[in-house]
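Chain A, query sequence.
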Amino acid sequence: MRRYACPNCANEVHFRNTECVSCHSRLGYVPARDQMFSTGADDSQWHDGATAYNACANRPVISCNWLVAEEEAEEHCLSCRHTLVIPDLSSGENRDHWAALEEAKRRLFYSIEKFRLGVGDLVNEPDTALRFEFKADVPSRDGKTKRVLTGHDHGLITINVAEADDPIREKYRKAMGEPYRTLIGHFRHEIGHYYWDHLVWNTPKLEPYRAIFGDEREDYGEALKRHYEKGAPAGWEATHVSSYACAHSWEDFAETWAHYFHIVDGLETAGWYGLDGHTPDAGLHRTPGGWSDAGPYGAAEFKPLMDAWVPLTVAMNAMNRSIGLGDFYPFVLSDTIFAKLEFIHGLIHDRR
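Chain A, predicted structure.
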């Protein structure tokens, strides 16, 4: 994530901000431009020359600060329009959870836009577009609860809104023995399945994929059952980014895909704050030095990313320990895992 400045007063603002705390301009983000725009408190639109932008229809409901070009004739921004189902908003708790999920999803779409991956055509080819459903568990008449399972089904990603509740998510994390569990992690993992369908399946990349991640034709249901009954094999850390990645080839790919997104976005953030060994340019309107103009998202080679990421995580882990927190990045990346990450890097950049 890069840094932003208020266009009106140059005060630093953050990706989620709807208002500048210094000059009180109303802020809006245009993903196609990766730029924050400002307008007066009484103005209903934002302008960039002759182009007028409207607020996303979800702005007054969940504080979405993304904008929509007036010429698009859309009520919702690029991110929000890909959400097909939201939870029952008669519950204030559901409203808060939905807002948190959409905020994480906007960060996801930020990366998708930076990688130029595409999200499909909701109007003309809706069945192949990236879609989201945010659902809550529903009590049944027999007193039991019908649980909503987070998962992916041919581009349709379902997420249980309870994942936006910090104590509940922590409970799940401990029960699953995971080193960490976050909303952005869920999103990045689940879209890994979507892009596997589009970038690997039925392409020349399929056989190289199988050579690195294993054969996806293994029965998925049986593989998950075995994983939940027996757990990951001893020594899994040498070959997989997480224990869950051991469950099946598809899950290995999705977990590694999520980590690749963590790495690149983390490096971009570090670069903008001068934490990755590069010297940021003066001001907040330009990309930092040390990378191409597109920053880590545009890195043609994979090795420079890892050369920057590994020492950064070592330093951040040490920082966390110095103030009594757990490791910032509790993972060990072996040569085998490097090869998997490099494969994903190639998938994304070959498509570009």
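The longest strand covers residues 26-30. Confidence is low (pLDDT under 50) at residues 279-290.
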